[in-house]
């Protein structure tokens, strides 16, 4: 699992029939301390994440392990919205506390 932040969406009206009805999000990869790594991925949103949400996402064959992506040509999936995380006892992200942001 990787940590990222939803920073955009991708709209595609013409796509493989297996992808119809799926929402595509642009996810910016972040480090364990919440700093952007410079990498981005387009991921299928399996949980209803929104712009700015910190999320857990998976890539590769693991991306096809959710009900939304099973049997689909997916290489990345958002599978959780993060409420909070800490590293070495330091709060890095708290979804409810706007003052604590990556």
Structure report:
With 102 residues, the protein is mainly beta. It has a single domain, classed as EutN/Ccml (OB fold (Dihydrolipoamide Acetyltransferase, E2P)). Helices cover 0% and strands 46% of the residues. The protein is built from no helices and seven strands. The strands form two sheets. The protein has a five-stranded mixed beta barrel. A two-stranded antiparallel ribbon has the order 6-7. β6 and β7 form a beta hairpin.
Strand count, sense and barrel status of the largest sheet are: 5 strands, mixed, barrel
The percent range for helix content is: under 10%
Q: Strand fraction band?
A: over 45%
Spatial extent as radius of gyration: 14 Å
Enumerate the strands of the largest sheet in spatial order, edge to edge or round the barrel.
Answer: 1-2-3-5-4
Number of domains: 1
Question: What does the average pLDDT come to?
Answer: 93
Structural class: mainly beta
Give the number of helices. Answer: 0
The poorly predicted ranges are: none
- Topology-level CATH name: OB fold (Dihydrolipoamide Acetyltransferase, E2P)
Number of strands: 7
Q: How far from one another are the termini?
A: 18 Å
Please identify which CATH superfamily we are dealing with.
EutN/Ccml
CATH architectural group: Beta Barrel
What would CATH call the class?
A: Mainly Beta
SSE ordering: EEEEEEE
Using the alpha-carbon principal axes, give the shape: elongated
